[in-house]
Amino acid sequence: MDEGPLVDLGRLTRTSATPLYRQLYERLRASILAGHLPPGTRLPSTRALQAELGVGRNTVADAFSQLLAEGYLETRKGSGTYVARTIPDDLVTLRGASERGRSPHRRRPLSERGRVIVAAPSMPDLEWRKRRPFYPGVPAYELLPIDTWRRLMARHWRRPSAGVLGYGAPVGYEPLRHAIAQHLTAVRGVSCDPGQVIVVAGSQQALDLAARVLLDAGDAAWIEDPAFPGARAALSGAGARLVPVRIDDDGIDVAEGERLASDARLAYVSPSHQYPLGKTMSVARRLELLRWAEAHGAWIVEDDYDSEFRYRGRVLPALKGLDEHGWVIYVGTFSKVLFPSLRLGYMVVPDDLVDAFAAARALSDRHPPTAEQAVLADFITDGHFLRHIRRMRLVYAERQAVLLEHVGKRLGGLLEVEADEAGMHVIGRLPQGADDVALSLACAGRGVSAPPLSHYYMGEPAQPGFVLGYTGYDEPAINWGVRMMGHALAP
Question: Which CATH number fits domain 129-138+391-489: 3.30.420.340, 1.10.390.10, 3.90.1150.10, 3.30.1330.80?
Answer without folding.
Answer: 3.90.1150.10
